[in-house]
Amino acid sequence: xxxxxxxxxxxxxxxxxxxxxxxxxxxxxxxxxxxxxxxxxxxxxxxxxxxxxxxxxxxxxxxxxxxxxxxxxxxxxxxxxxxxxxxxxxxxxxxxxxxxxxxxxxxxxxxxxxxxxxxxxxxxxxxxxxxxxxxxxxxxxxxxxxxxxxxxxxxxxxxxxxxxxxxxxxxxxxxxxxxxxxxxxxxxxxxxxxxxxxxxxxxxxxxxxxxxxxxxxxxxxxxxxxxxxxxxxxxxxxxxxxxxxxxxxxxxxxxxxxx
Amino acid sequence: xxxxxxxxxxxxxxxxxxxxxxxxxxxxxxxxxxxxxxxxxxxxxxxxxxxxxxxxxxxxxxxxxxxxxxxxxxxxxxxxxxxxxxxxxxxxxxxxxxxxxxxxxxxxxxxxxxxxxxxxxxxxxxxxxxxxxxxxxxxxxxxxxxxxxxxxxxxxxxxxxxxxxxxxxxxxxxxxx
Lengths: 259, 177
Description:
The complex is a heterodimer. Chain A is of the alpha+beta class.
């Protein structure tokens, strides 16, 4: 057990520097969230890792700097003039917006100087570029969604305002409308059996089936429950046949009210 | 207080002048991170545009703490997204929003300029410094670090841990000088 903990502590620095693969990062985030010494170490090392970024500061040539600024300020001034309020938008949308704007501007210039024959060719090229751009934008948006989900999970697990409820072999973490199970020592199961999470809505008694999962070889698992946490009064865990059950078929490993 | 924090309060109120000041103050940092991670000025420019547009359209994503640290994380994560889309380094990740209570506080960040950090980093043994820089700017996993530097995985972990500890101590000393 102590050796396992030391191994996990060794990985805290890697997590702070951001060099752990996603799955491993989620495990270490869960460990940090549940271990005071790991949290202290993380905060110290994370601060050091953060400042490394500052060594990258570079002079930007004045033409480039002015060009970037003018593009940004044009959009900002337009928003202010229109009274647009700030709202969250996926980063991919901005990239597509800039790309789209640049493409349109380039197209306007090109079409004003080419001959009709060239125009036909360019239209074809443009259509190809637009199709490729649409494909890339879709891929980027998908990547962004996955990355955003990962970041949100990691942030939730470590957030000081998250509520934590101790349960057998781990912790239930609640932040805003999101719920997570984190386990650091869940016993292995025989073949054909899985762990299944349950949520019990406020004011009700019957559990609602949630996700099934298996821990890794060290008994570690981090699971996001697809439920609106604000409506959940309690959570539970049981061992079920592979594929899950509609109602618990074994005595729950725990039932934890979220109060 | 980190001047970026005050400017962000005004950006939330849709103050274009504050946004312009924020750009003037931090675009070199964001561009530099992009350049180090993506390797070419055009990509760094795209990244800078994207990061600052995110700041303008979603200022509430910044929830306090050090603005420098936050914008650096946003820039790094955005660069990782770009690398991921090119299927170069698909896996590493860091959360942008983090609790920093008990860590280097905002004043410390505000007093650390790039040269001080470079000086502090230069005091680390080359093998520790190299792994930290490659890990941070290369966007690669620790396994990849071990492979690229032909170093055992356990040694990579130890060097990064010791290097970050030493850097933390060195930065503390420099700020108190």
